[in-house]
Amino acid sequence: METNIWSIFVVYMSLISIKLSESNKIKISGPGLQPQNIVMPARYFLVNFTYLNEDSYTPHLGKNLAVEINGRSTKSNFCRVWVNTLDRKDGTFIVRYKVYETCTNLSISIYYKNKHIENSPFMFDGPIQPDQCNCPDEDLNLWLKKYGCSSSYENIINDLKPFNKLDMTVEIQKIVQKYHKPESTSFCHYVIKNNKIYRDCYGKHIGFNMFADNILLSLARKVFLPDMELVINLGDWPLVHKGNEPLPVFSWCGSNETIDIVMPTYDLTESALENMGRITLDTLSVQGNVELKWKNRKPIAFWRGRDSRAERLKLIDIARAYPELFNVSLTNFFFYRDKEAQYGPKQPHISFFKFFDYKYQINVDGTVAAYRFPYLLAGGGMVLKQDSPYYEHFYRDLRKWEHYVPVARDLSDLVKRIKWAREHDYEAHVIADNGRKFALENLLPQHIICYYAKLFSEWSKRLENKVTIRDGMTHVPQPKFECNCPLKNKNIHEEL
């Protein structure tokens, strides 16, 4: 009898030990745990079961995790909050939440097996503002620290190096004279004055000004931007070629032959600003919707896309010669319609999440850099990246054979690279994991917003002229939204 009691006691204590061990190895981190300081369309944080990885993960883990976020609003007892949990299937969960009104007494409760984990519940008095609130902080430098932004970005320093002590009144005239070609080039001259946005656009196709509008408006709601003016190129191709006068033009994409000041692409910008409200891709959703573990994915290179470059046609030729290594197809013909019979038939689009049923992802340039690259990294595929003269704002931080596998510009070594990956599965998996980690640490919404804020902050320091609103400029208003902003001006004091 004593033996049985002792056995039961030992088992009971071991179970407690396991639970305590698990609890101590659950880490919670991310900008969503600072909702009073970090305002985003969708806030997010990570719940990381550090004792697990992709191989030891089992689906029951997600069933035992629960998140509740509650608060009060100024209008009722309950604040409207939408919560979304994404399972990365490696022991890490991304929790996103969106507040639709000003919240107070916000609580974030995280349960594992019906018990609070780590420091849960997290409590915030507030007010916690939705992203639509126009309640800017007054001190940009302080805001950058509160928002968790890096103090310095090497890429920004390099891009701005050619520009110093500029008179934008003169520079704007030169830019308009050189690049105002309505049929082929479109750009907008923006003025930020007293934290309000104004613009004057040039060219026939200016619809993409909405992306520039949206990031400037988003930043201006969060922090008082310095008075400044800048020119944003709305097209894909960078404009200012090396060897010409270094005119200051901001572009979504850079190249080895140009010196444009590179911003995050309009696609990645929209991903950050429309998070949880976007029907297409964002870097968080990709991480939470990949279904298969690496070992269960097909050891085949996958690609879908339109015919925007000759190398994409060559990719079809290569794939047809090695059908056991590839699953690639064109989804649309525009640039090479005369070759549809040869390279078709075109195939229907499939969910981007299904790309990652395959281990290897091919990244081939489109008209410029292929803007899907951040999402390929985020999905944890081993990316085979074509050598390219074009680059996005983060490319210089990537390393070959660590974050991706390089492929020659003409794709001549593509087959060899895929065969290497099949023969070195462990190394290929490590590269895929490194790419996914890079996306997690550099390409999420907080990172994109920070990059823009730091870029514009540094840019404003290089202007000498008095910033004025030119005649005929269009005011870009903030969207109307009812919000009670807290008093943030710490210089206000009572006279004694």
What proportion strand? 15-25%
> CATH superfamily of the largest domain, called what?
Glycogen Phosphorylase B
Helix content: 25-40%
Helix run count: 14
CATH topology of the largest domain, by name, is Rossmann fold
Sheet bearing the most strands, described? 5 strands, parallel
Q: How many domains make up the coordinates?
A: 3
Radius of gyration in whole Å, from Cα?
Answer: 25 Å
* Order of strands in the sheet with most strands: 16-15-17-18-20
How many DSSP E strands? 21
* C-alpha end-to-end distance: 81 Å
Short characterization:
The protein has 14 helices and 21 strands. It is α/β, with parallel strands linked by helices. The strands form 6 sheets. The chain has a 5-stranded parallel sheet with strand order 16-15-17-18-20. It has a 4-stranded antiparallel sheet with strand order 1-2-5-4. Strands 3, 6, 7 and 8 form a 4-stranded antiparallel sheet that branches.
Describe the structure.
It is found in: Endoplasmic reticulum lumen. Pathway: Protein modification. It catalyses: L-seryl-[EGF-like domain protein] + UDP-alpha-D-glucose = 3-O-(beta-D-glucosyl)-L-seryl-[EGF-like domain protein] + UDP + H(+); L-seryl-[EGF-like domain protein] + UDP-alpha-D-xylose = 3-O-(beta-D-xylosyl)-L-seryl-[EGF-like domain protein] + UDP + H(+). By secondary structure, the protein is α/β, with parallel strands linked by helices. It folds into three domains: 25-131, Immunoglobulin-like; 154-271 and 468-476, no CATH class; 283-445, Glycogen Phosphorylase B (Rossmann fold), CATH 3.40.50.2000. The chain is 30% helix and 22% strand. The chain is built from 14 helices and 21 strands. The protein has helices spanning 2-24, 60-63, 140-146, 154-160, 168-179, 209-222, 266-273, 283-288, 310-321, 340-343, 373-378, 414-423, 425-442, 445-460; strands at residues 26-29, 43-49, 65-73, 81-87, 92-99, 103-112, 115-116, 122-124, 187-193, 196-202, 228-233, 250-251, 254-255, 261-262, 298-306, 326-332, 358-363, 382-386, 390-391, 405-407, 474-476. Strands 16-15-17-18-20 form a five-stranded parallel sheet. α7 (266-273) crosses α14. It is globular. It starts with a helix and ends in a 20-residue tail after the last strand. Mean pLDDT is 91; it is low at 7-21 and 489-496.
